[in-house]
Amino acid sequence: TITATGLPFFENFYAGGVRSVRGFRDNTLGPRSEVISGFRGQPLGGALKTTGSLEMYFPKLFDSKAARISAFVDFGNVFSGTDTFDAGELRASTGVSLLWRAPVGPISISYAYPLRKEDEDEVERLQFTFGGAF
Questions:
Q1: Alpha-carbon distance 65 to 88, whole Å?
Q2: How does strand 23-24 pair with strand 48-57?
Q3: Do residues 107 and 129 lie in contact, with contact meaning Cβ atoms separated by under 8 Å?
Q4: Model confidence band, residue 2 (pLDDT cutoffs 50, 70, 90)
Q5: Which residues pair with 107 in a beta bridge?
Q6: pLDDT tens digit string along 75-115?
Q7: Residue 25: CB atoms within 10 Å
Q8: DSSP states of 4-35 as a string?
Q9: Which fold would CATH assign to domain 9-130?
Q10: Going by fewer Cβ within 10 Å, which terminus of the chain is more open, N or C?
Q11: % residues pLDDT > 90 (the chain)
Q12: Collapsing DSSP states into helix, strand and coil, what is residue 89?
């Protein structure tokens, strides 16, 4: 399917979720298809993705070389193109995260509170991921 950017959906950028803007469901930020009879439109993605994060790691709160706790602020969104970028449309969240380097691989648990959101945004405060980013 060709999207608003003129590209197939799999070539678009997406944002939201543990690896971009925590506190929002994976890949749900940005342009959406038309809303039909009260349902949210489907995320379309876009040609411009803007995200950022500020994270502060706390000193060891317990005796473990494999775990750490942090506080974070994430922000970002996806836009159809550079001409549609609007800083006022950026979403933001804050929260805490626990990263544990388990014997089977890294496990991360985050709890986020959206600071800046819109009614149509899909909030997901507690998020979990297994494995590292690549």
A1: 41
A2: unpaired
A3: yes
A4: low
A5: 100, 130
A6: 999 998 899 999 999 999 999 999 988 889 999 999 999 99
A7: 15
A8: TTSSBGGGSB-B-STTSSTEE-TT-BS-BPPP
A9: Porin (2.40.160)
A10: C
A11: 57
A12: helix
* Whether 5 contacts 72, CB under 8 Å: no
Closest CA to 116 of 79, 78, 84, 89: 89
DSSP tag of 66: S
Distance CA 126, CA 129 (A): 10
Pair of tokens at residue 27: 């890949």
* pLDDT of res. 32: 85
Give the residue from 60, 26, 55, 15 showing the smallest Cα distance to 129: 26
Place of tokens 């993705």: 49
